[in-house]
Amino acid sequence: MDVQGRERQQQGSAAQDASQAVGASQQALGNFLYDAASGRINLIDFGDEGEVMLGAHVEAGVMVGLPFGTPGLHGGMTHRVSELGAVMLKHRLTPPPDESYSLHRKLSGAFLACITLKARVPCRQLFLEAYDAHEALLARESAHNAEVLAAQHADAQRRSQERQAVAAAAGGREPLAA
């Protein structure tokens, strides 16, 4: 079954909270693109995968994103994601990208360490702080780029005026380039 371009819709307060948290109209989430304006999660490309596999991916993506989109404790999340992992292993038709293996191992290790340590990590707060720092960096870069463009424009205008002044002094003729 060809599922390229197929859309998966996931609505609800968690998805809406996540969109507000990132403060962007569209946010790439692995193989998904979240469109805040429509409240939809659109599947980018999973190759040839069945409905069960796609449903497990959507649910796992939402489960893993909950701590970043909503405040509070999210008990049972690791257990449910493990169950979905088993579904994915059973129903997978094509292998995932190589990069996902190391990422999954790191995330699983981090979750297990937090469980073992009984840690309470303010994921949403940390995410929002990182997002704000990223936005501030983008704003600084944008301001810098605007300054550079303004300086380049002013320099081009100055050179044009100098050429016009030289041409006027030369009796209206453009001077020959050296």
Account of the 3D structure:
Helix content is 62%, strand content 8%. It contains five helices and four strands; from the N terminus they run E-H-E-E-E-H-H-H-H. The chain has a four-stranded antiparallel sheet, with helices on one face. Helix 1 crosses helix 2 (51-69) and helix 2 packs antiparallel against helix 3 (77-91). It is elongated and about 85 Å long.
Q: Stretches where pLDDT falls below 50 for ≥5 residues?
A: 1-28
What is the CA-atom radius of gyration, in angstroms?
26 Å
Shape: elongated
Structural class: alpha+beta
- Indicate the multimeric state: single chain
Mean pLDDT value: 75
Figure out the total of helices.
5
Summarize the model shown.
By secondary structure, the protein is α+β, with helices and mostly antiparallel strands. The chain has 5 helices and 4 strands.
Sequence-ordered SSE layout with sheet pairings:
Blueprint: E1 7-8, H1 13-22, E2 26-29, E3 32-35, E4 40-43, H2 51-69, H3 77-91, H4 98-117, H5 123-169
Antiparallel strand pairs: 1-4, 2-3, 3-4
